[in-house]
Amino acid sequence: MGHPSSSGASSQLDHAEGTEGALLEGIREGDERVFAELMQEWSSVMLRLALVHVESRAVAEEVVQEAWLTVLRDIGRFERRSSLRTWVLGIVVNLARSRARVERRTVPLPADVAGAAVEPARFRPPDSRRWAGHWALGPVPWPLPEDALLASETRRVIVDAIAALPALQREVLVLRDLEGVGAAETCNVLGLSDTNQRVLLHRARTRVRNALEWYFDATEPT
Amino acid sequence: MSETHPPEMLCRELVEVVTDYLEHRLSPRDRARFEAHLAECEYCETYLEQMRQTIRALGRLPEESLSVDARDGLLTAFRDWTRR
Q: Does the beta-carbon distance from A150 to B25 stay under 8 Å?
């Protein structure tokens, strides 16, 4: 991407235990290559977290820039109680959330963990004489090879479904499924319990799946 | 074998624990109930496969990246910071 050091070297900047200290030292000692690599490697997850709370891309970039400036300001005091990435992502989340509060765009939502994720009406009621609790309107396979899910029209369905999620669900989905961050680190970045993290992930994934099902109109009476 | 069989898992329950299943957080007993149900129910098998398809699609969305201006601005800020 127009940056000479961005090709090839990024795999060396893994988050393995051993390299973590080296990254931290690199930044503290002013190694521009280390800083540029981290900025590149983490820019996707940082922008996606910011975009949970701010609509405009330009503002999201400002949030990411502000986060890096905060990192530089505070890195001397960083005590490594978490990994460097966890700490940096936590800073982005906090800045983006407070930016959203200022713009009054999103009220920090309660976790939205109550009730069933799938419409109860999709199932036969508990007093059915036969097959209570089984599908009333069952899912049928989607009429596309899987690669086609990322074709532009269905990708739009997925992207819109993500955008419509409550903020906390979207934060969890971004970290876990879009960026492949593990459950434990996701809990640490967002300050969630393991159980809450899983419930939020479940609800977010369910909504995206449902949006695709609705788009494909892929159900049948059982 | 005098052990009582655990109650059958219903479709309605399965869709609510599908993430726990994929995250390997079901108890061995519930995992067995889940898999026993799956072996019998084509709809739930489809449902599970669609969850997996959804997760794979989410992981393959194009990444975001910072604009050149933002990156240049940050590199400048970093150089200033190292001279502090």
A: no
Q: Does A15 touch chain B (CB under 8 A)?
A: no
The per-residue pLDDT for range A136-155, each reduced to its tens digit, is: 999 999 988 777 888 888 99
Same domain, A12 and A97: yes
Residue A210 CA to chain centroid, in angstroms?
18
If one counts every other C-beta atom within 10 angstroms of the C-beta of residue A189, the result is 26
User: What's the CATH number where A169 sits?
Assistant: 1.10.10.10
Tell me the three state secondary structure of residue A139. Answer: strand
Query: In terms of CA atoms, which chain B residue is nearest residue A178?
Result: B59
Does residue B80 belong to the interface with chain A, where contact is any CB pair within 8 Å? no
Dump pLDDT digits (tens) for A20-39: 888 999 999 999 999 999 99
For the record, the structure tokens of B21 come out as: 């299943």
pLDDT in tens, A152-189: 889 999 999 999 999 999 999 999 999 999 999 999 99
Which two structure tokens, joined as six digits, stand for A169? 């669900």
Q: Do A39 and B23 touch (CB under 8 A)?
A: no
How far is CA B5 from its chain centroid? 29
Q: Which residue range is the domain that position B21 belongs to? A: 1-62
Structural domain containing residue A158? 120-221
pTM of the model: 0.89
Contacts by residues A121-125 (CB-CB < 8 Å, ≥ 24 positions apart): A122/B12, A123/B10, A123/B11, A123/B12
Query: Does B55 contact A at CB distance below 8 Å?
Result: yes
Half-sphere exposure of A102 (CA within 13 A, CB side): 9
- B62-73 pLDDT per residue, tens: 999 999 999 999
By the CB < 8 Å criterion, does B76 face chain A? no
Taking only the tens place, the pLDDT of each residue in A79-96 is 888 999 999 999 999 999
